[in-house]
Amino acid sequence: MPPSTSNKLNRRHLPARSACVALYAVSILLLLASRMGRGWGFVDLAVYHYGAQGVLAGAHLYALRFPGALAFTYPPIAALLFLPLTLVRMAVLKPVVTAGSVVLLPVTLGSALRLTPIRDWLSRDRAIRIALLASAIAIWLEPVWTTLRYGQIDLLVAALILYDLSRPDGARWKGVGIGLATGLKLTPGIFAVYLLLTRRYRAAAVSLGVFAATVAVGFLALPRDSREYWSGAFADPNRVGRIENAANQSLRGAYARLLHTLGVEPWWICTAALVGVLGIALAVHAGRRGDDALGFSLCALSALLVSPISWSHHWVMAIPALLLFALGAWRVGSRTRLTAVAMAIALGCSHVIWWVPVNHPRHSELHLDAGQLVFADAYVLLGLAALVLAAAETRARQRLRRLTPAP
Question: Would the pLDDT of 323 be above 50?
Fold first, then answer.
């Protein structure tokens, strides 16, 4: 991008940083005061708390069942990291964890704006202000709302990944965040593969080393639970919940709802392999030409789509990708893309995936009509559309490069 254009973008008026903080604070207060701010059950935070208590009591971690028949589905290291939660009552934990997530949202979006090549033309100060303004909107999106009301750690995982990717390639400990995030939730491992295939070998080695260390610590502290988890429990999506649940916005969940059956493994495995290979290939192609913003976005979408279970709160990983797409659309002045961004935001704010019967009656998501399927599979359809668009643009870029004579 020519320097003059970059400077022009950086001169465009934005509210002062204090005003951006105030706008975000007002948006938070409005959310908490609205109907959406009521009835937060913090069910996942309770699972973290009870799981850590089970570890202290010497209980069999993966045999425990918590209120709502929920099980502990995280690696053993997660239960160890959750031990400090047992020092505080749930009545105190709930506002503290909520406040932490509220802070992590603009931190996560701000880190996304420090990815290459955006950090080459967008100043840090403007990135902070844009992140705060975007957070004032993003907090109303269903994935963020669900993360907050469940007391989930998804924003922490996203922040760890983006912090790592936004650091210079020569940074000594680049990869630690991705390794730790993979230790907490396995799907971030796709970013270690991304680092490896984009030839950032040291960062990839660090991330894999940190992940291996989390596994080793788990075996040392919780040998029985570690053996059970890594011998197959981690690969059993039935322990996590109903795959047909409308909240499961993965290809596997979409197939279950579309085909009206739970036996979708052949379809899911073939499609997931195709989408995963395509997504990581496009991401690596972008990363090798210095576009980590696109590389991150494609990795995040690919992981969400191919995972056996991608609850809607997992899709907070896609919100930085949406911001990056919006910024690119604004930079080039594309009305079509800005319209697509507005539609995606409207979809997220509408909570459309909850417009269908959810297990009422039992397994009701296996009996949806065509219109309901569109609602129930909204995030999956959006993710697939983004991958198709990225593939088309990559192909067009390659064709243009072939037709352009070398200087």
Answer: yes
Q: What distances in angstroms separate CA 195 from CA 283, 284, 290, 341, one per listed residue?
A: 10, 8, 12, 28
| 211 is a domain residue | yes
Q: What is the pLDDT of residue 374?
A: 96
- Calculate the average pLDDT of the chain: 93
Q: How many CB atoms sit inside 10 A of residue 32's CB?
A: 15
Dump pLDDT digits (tens) for 46-71.
Answer: 999 999 999 999 999 999 888 777 88
Q: Please report whether residue 300 resides in a domain.
A: yes
Number of domains in the chain: 1
Residues β-bridged to residue 2: none
Euclidean distance between CA atoms 31 and 33, whole angstroms: 5
SS3 311: strand
pLDDT value for 241: 84
Contact 7, 55 (CB under 8 A): no
Dump pLDDT digits (tens) for 94-119.
Answer: 999 999 999 999 999 999 999 999 99
- Return the closest-CA partner of residue 330 out of 144, 122, 135, 106: 122
Instruction: Confirm whether 341 is domain-assigned.
Output: yes
- For residue 37, tell me if it sits in a domain: no
What pTM does this model have? 0.94
**Number of C-alpha atoms within 13 angstroms, CB side, residue 45?**
25
Instruction: Tell me the residue type at 219.
Output: F
pLDDT tens digit sequence for 379-388: 999 999 999 9
Q: What is the C-alpha separation between 25 and 324, in angstroms, rounded?
A: 23
Helices (H) and strands (E) in the chain, counts: 19, 0
Q: Nearest 5 degrees, angle CA 143-CA 147-CA 151? A: 170
Contact 282, 391 (CB under 8 A): yes
**Under 8 Å between Cβ of 164 and 178:** yes
Q: Which residue has the tokens 């708390």?
A: 49
Domain region containing 370? 154-220+242-395
